Amino acid sequence: MAETSAALERARHEIDRIDDALHSLLMERVELVSEIARAKTSGGAAPARVALRPAREAQVLRRLLARHAGVLPFDVVARIWREMMAAFTRLQGPFSVAVAGGSEPMAYWDLARFYYGAATPMSLATSALAAVQLVGQGGGMIAIVPVSGDDAGPPWWVHLGEGPDQPRVLVRLPLVRGTDVTRDHPSAYTVAIAPLEPSGDDLTLVAVATAGDVTRARVVATFEGAGFAARTLELAEEPGSDERIHLVELDGFFASGQDPRFGVLKPRPRGLIRDIRVVGAFARGIEPVENEAAAATGAALGDDKR
Ligand SMILES: O=C(O)C(=O)C[C@]1(C(=O)O)C=C[C@@H](O)C=C1
Prior knowledge:
By secondary structure, the protein is α+β, with helices and mostly antiparallel strands. It has a domain at 202-283: 2-Layer Sandwich (Alpha-Beta Plaits), CATH 3.30.70.2040. It is built from eight helices and nine strands. The strands form two sheets. Strands 2-1-3-5-4 form a five-stranded mixed sheet, sandwiched between helices. Helix 5 (105-116) links the parallel strand 1 (96-100) and strand 2 (122-125). The longest helix has 25 residues, at 6-30. It is elongated and about 80 Å long. The chain starts with 5 loop residues before the first helix and ends in a 6-residue tail after the last helix. Residues 302-306 have low confidence and may be disordered. The chain binds prephenic acid. Keywords: Coiled coil, Isomerase. This is chorismate mutase. GO terms for molecular function: chorismate mutase activity. Residues 1-28 form a coiled coil.
């Protein structure tokens, strides 16, 4: 019987040895969690904040991608690490996810599950605004909301703030693209109350207040004229107000509207740009380049899902 060949026995013995080593390392990794949790609260307790540190997570995944080789698709590695990082987040305090499903609740739900772990409590919110309001109540809740134009509810992003204890966009999902199982999924933002940190390759979301007649194209032209790479995403108007708020995505990391680099735009109450608020910043998507040799081996092994 081929099934009990010596070669198979040997390979399984090796797998047992490797599993033991992986398990020992996992237990060693988790020993660091209380030290990490302590360091995060050493400046005083901040009960509204969640232990999630998306910039650090992106750095970890980028570093692993840079050293990755062989036939295992990188999205499998990403999935294992996502599960581990979600568990580490839960070990540091309350952590749950409210999903605003837009027109495709199942797709956004799957995206949230993939990124925030199989055991993290999740609930479906009635709209993006409802999900963001839940985040604002604290208690370790984060929200997954459709990126653009896929939520029938009122604009949610005008409720984001610049302060460390206000909900902000900290991730754009999917973070790992290409071979990722979420390849065909829509994009979503993760909204949370947690520090805004640079990952080294980031995009920033700003809420830009202008007079009521300033078009999206003019806002982008103004930013580009001042040397920013900018894209306009959404526009919100207060009924009866002479002001509009534009949601604009910028290349690079900006921690606040007071960043001196915004000085060239001269934000002032009666100017074209009246105010700039940073309402989020997140790592640029990670693009694993599929290794051709790996793909060929996968095909040879009967992997017909690619
Ligand atoms: O580095 C941290 O701050 C951690 O909490 C550890 C860890 C991880 O498991 O690597 C977990 C959750 C954070 O979102 C980022 C990273």
